[in-house]
Every structure is written in structure tokens, then in C-alpha cells.
Design goal:
This protein is mainly alpha-helical. 35% of the residues lie in helices and 3% in strands. Helix 4 packs across helix 7 (128-140).
């Protein structure tokens, strides 16, 4: 039996993973943004622009990028992948991520997904971050190290937590797998 392709957003039959109408409802991040965290900015103050939050408390990472504004529309395909394992849009979403992180990916030595705690992995049956990392690696030509990190402790779900609570929730939750420490030393991940 052949099932029609359904839109990632509306769930209605469409000619691809998104209907034209659903695609136009997504808000892609383009234009002026903070060079550290990728937060969209109203004014373009140049290539080294930082947002107030990154100036006040510089993040430990070099740069972060997102393809879409997380809102009621983009939440549908993202949570469909995360909780329901809807993989039919994986290549499309990975393409958006490669486009958003193009400059960073060009200088990346390895792509490393964030692991789930083993109890959550058993319950869910998959790690969507691993799927995305593999798809991004395939599209970008960058190598992926699926087992580069270890989830040291279970954390509560990030859903419903403030930014501060999310950050606190993940303190000491991950570490580099001992067998990968020398591989990652001095590398851009």
C-alpha cells in the first residue's frame, strides 16, 4: 500500500514534506543575528555583533545557530521528530540546519549528537539528535561521532523550564567518552 506524503506541519496530503502554504508559515532565521548565540537582532551592527545577553554572560561555546524561530508552527515538525519519531522530514530539517550553520560547519572537525540517558532511550526507542547528526553529516560531508559523549545522569525534561532552569538542569549531565578525549582534543565540534 502506498501512503500519500503528508505535510510536516498540517499533516495533510501534500506534494512533499511541506505544502507551499505550510512552508510559508515557518519563520526562518535570516539577517542580523548575534554571532555567538544566533539570536535574531533588529539592527545589523556588523559581522562581530553580539546580543546583550552574550555580552553580559559570554557563553562557553564559539557559536550556535538555529534554522527556525521556535513557535507554534515550527514546534509541530520538531516535536513530531522528537517524540513520535517522524523521520520523513529528517533530510529536509537537516538541510535547514546545514544552511543555518554553514559557516560553522565549514570549520567543524566532528559532528557529535547529544545523547539521551539510557532509560529515556529505552522508553523512546530512538535518539532524534543522533538521527539529525547523521543526516547533517551526510549532507555536509563532515564526519559524525555518534558515541562521542556520555550522558552521565538522568535529567528532568526541559519542557516547561525557563532558560535558567534548563541550563541548571544540564550541569554535569554530559562528558566526553574517555575513548574520544584524545580524538577531540584541539578539535572543533
Amino acid at each position: 500500500m502506498i501512503w500519500p506524503v503528508r505535510s510536516l506541519v498540517s499533516g495533510k496530503p501534500s506534494g512533499g514534506v511541506l505544502s507551499v502554504e505550510d512552508f510559508t508559515r515557518l519563520t526562518f532565521i535570516t539577517g542580523a543575528m548575534c554571532q555567538k548565540c544566533g539570536t535574531p537582532q533588529e539592527l545589523d551592527l556588523g559581522p562581530d555583533m553580539l546580543c546583550a545577553a552574550c555580552i553580559a554572560r559570554p557563553p562557553v561555546w564559539a557559536s550556535a545557530r538555529a534554522a527556525l524561530i521556535y513557535d507554534d508552527i515550527s514546534r509541530i515538525p520538531i516535536l513530531g521528530l522528537k517524540w513520535a519519531g517522524h523521520r520523513h522530514g529528517l533530510k529536509t530539517m537537516a538541510g535547514w540546519m546545514v544552511g543555518a550553520g554553514y559557516d560553522s560547519l565549514a570549520q567543524t572537525d566532528y559532528i557529535v549528537p547529544v545523547p539521551l540517558h539510557y532509560r529515556r532511550l529505552v522508553r523512546r526507542g530512538f535518539n532524534q539528535a543522533g538521527w539529525l547528526a547523521g543526516a547533517i553529516a551526510h549532507l555536509s560531508g563532515r564526519p559524525v561521532k555518534q558515541a562521542g559523549l556520555i550522558r552521565k545522569r538522568a535529567t528532568k525534561s526541559q519542557s516547561g523550564l525557563s532558560a535558567r532552569q534548563r541550563k541548571r538542569n544540564l550541569v554535569r549531565a554530559f562528558e566526553v567518552r574517555p575513548s574520544h578525549k584524545t580524538i577531540f582534543e584541539g578539535k572543533t565540534i
